[in-house]
Structures are given as structure tokens and as C-alpha cells.
Amino acid sequence: MHILVTNDDGVQAPGLLALAQELRKLGKVTVFAPDRNWSASGHVKTMDRPLRAREVTLADGTTALATDGAPSDSVALALLGVVKEKIDLVVSGINPHENIGHDVTYSGTVTAAMEAVIGGVPGIAISLNSPEEFRDSPGSSTGHGVLDYDTAASVARQVAEKVMAEELPEGVLLNVNVPYLKEDELKGFMITRQGLRLYRDALDARKDPRGKPYYWIGGQFPIGVLEEGTDYGAIKAGYVSITPLQLDLTAREAMEVMKKWKWK
Question: Are 115 and 72 in contact (CB under 8 A)?
Fold first, then answer.
């Protein structure tokens, strides 16, 4: 089995290394990730400039490919032929913060897995529900160096093994969120639906030295609504949350309502 590993925190992020090392137990691993942090980048495909890829050395001495593009660019480049050997599975992560609810539309971690599915390859996104002290701000990399990714990496391996054995339906990816617990403290695996994410964004308006306005989107770290059966509810109860996501975003119930509208 040949697994492509990517992320949105940059090719040197410790979560990526932990993931790659664990997935090597299943087969060959190729690491291809952005050369910088692309947190909250969403689903990006770079079309207005050339993309570059170069070989880099990771902290454990193994080699990886880094691109100046987005996480989804990394996957697209690999599947389009920059990586010559056929790829059987794409695993994106380990993100240091959970990706729940509406996060999936912002998350470079999740949209990298989406790009895999678009390319006809199974995709899995892995994120860690890290403690509050590591959350200075959305997308912050603070605390990466001391976070323990061992449990999330082991979970990723188990999910990857199951996906390759059972096969996912066409057009479906898995969004996996792991509680920040030791592996023997986990209560198990739970198949969940997307929960509700509450964003607490605030506008920070400033002026540059020439008096021209500029803006930061700041505020407190988002929280989730605790509800049974959801991604957030599962991780807060000590379960690994596995949410199947589909690329078909059609609101079918709304279609039926709109068909009753009177159109000229």
C-alpha cells in the first residue's frame, strides 16, 4: 500500500511527522505538504501562478516533498504525476486542533482529503482536540512542540487500515477527531454527524503608519455545541469521532421545497 501524507500546518510540523511514522507500519509513505502554514485556508487550487516542489529533510532524517502551494495543491500535484507511483490512500494531518462542524469548509486539513476524493483516491483527515493552553488563537501553532500526537497517530493508522479493508463509498471522505487522551483512556470509536460550531470572531481595525486602515479577524477560539451523536459531543465524551463527509453538497430537502415555488 502506498499512502500520501499531507497537512495544512507545513511540512515540518510535528503532527505530520508523527502521522507519517505511524503509517509506515502499513506500507510505503510519501510526504508531500506545504512549505508553510496554511491553516484555515479552505479548498484552494492555485491556477494563477506556477507551483514549485522541492525535496526537504524531516526531523527523523527521512525525505519529503514541499510545495509553495496549498494543502489541496499538494494532493493535486501528487495525483497528477509529480509522485510517480500510484497512490492508494491520502491521509491529512495531524491537525493540532479539532475540525468539527463548519470547520470543514475552512480547514486545509479536511479539504486536502476532499481533493483526494476528487482525484478518485480515498481521503482521511485527522485532527486532535488539544488542550486549551495550546489555543492562543485560531490557526495558532503555539505548543506544537510539546503536544502528544501518539494517540491520534495510532487512531489514524487504525482508521486507514479499516478504510483500505472495507472501502469507502464513492465521493465520501472521513473527518476524524481524536480526544487528547492516552490510547487506553479512549472509550472507543463513534460514527458521528457534523455538530454546530460557534465562532466568536471579532474585528480588530488598525491604521498603518500612513494612516490607512487595515484589519485583523480576531476574537476567542471557537467552541462547539455539546450534543449527543455529533463530532463535538463524541470527543468531549472521550470517543474518537469519525464523520463521513460527502462531496455532493446538494440540499435535497430544500430542492423539494423550491420545486413548489412558482417560477415565471
Answer: yes
pTM assigned to the model: 0.91
Domain definitions of the chain by residue range: 2-197+224-258
**Rounded Cα–Cα distance for residues 191 and 170 (Å):** 18
Q: Which one of 3.40.1210.10, 1.20.120.50, 3.40.1620.10, 1.25.40.10 gives the CATH number of domain 2-197+224-258? A: 3.40.1210.10
Mean pLDDT across 229-256:
95
Q: Which residues of 176-214 are buried (b: 16+ CB within 10 A; e: fewer)?
A: bbbbbbeeeebeebbebebbebebeeeeeeeeeeeeeee
For residue range 52-62, list pLDDT tens digits in order: 999 999 999 99
Residue 222 has what pLDDT?
79
